[in-house]
Amino acid sequence: MDKNDAHRIKLWRRRGYYSERQLVKKLEEKGYHAVRIPLSNPSMNPLPDVIGRRKNHVYSFECKNGSYAVTTPKEQIIKLFQFLEFFIPTERRFKHSVLVAHLKKEWKMKEVSWLDYDNDTLENATITRDSRSTFNIEKGLDRYKRY
User: Which residue of 20, 39, 67, 99 lies most exposed, with the fewest beta carbons within 10 A?
Assistant: First the structure.
């Protein structure tokens, strides 16, 4: 790996760190308790980038940063569900896995279904600027509603 590659990786990680911190701030502004998990991605452990809680609901967030589109690998999505399953002792209806795309100044959020996890139908997930959010940070547990 040459110096240019190392520099690009450092910038890429810094962008991810910035987006994760911004997500925590956005969640806290909306009444969530939220915390960023440092170094969650390189780990083989089932750790999300950000954990949030509002009322009885717990959210595991995988946050990606890009300009037009971001892709979350299936393995990282599985880790969101494993974290909730292994470490959050409550009913599944209170546990949510959410993919977050920070695309320049736009935020897109997509909740992933427990049915997809149970049926082993999860795939790599791509979110673009044209994608419709299926998770509303304002409402939290409610499904996305267009206003």
Answer: 67
Distances (CA, A) of 57 to 27, 78, 127: 13, 19, 24
CATH code for residues 3-128: 3.40.1350.10
- pTM of the entire predicted model: 0.85
pLDDT in tens, 98-113: 999 999 999 999 999 9
Tokens found for residue 88: 């959050």
Q: By C-alpha distance, which of 145, 33, 141, 31 is closest to 93?
A: 141
CA 70 to CA 23: how far, in whole Å? 16
Instruction: Give the number of other CB atoms < 10 A from CB of residue 94.
Output: 15
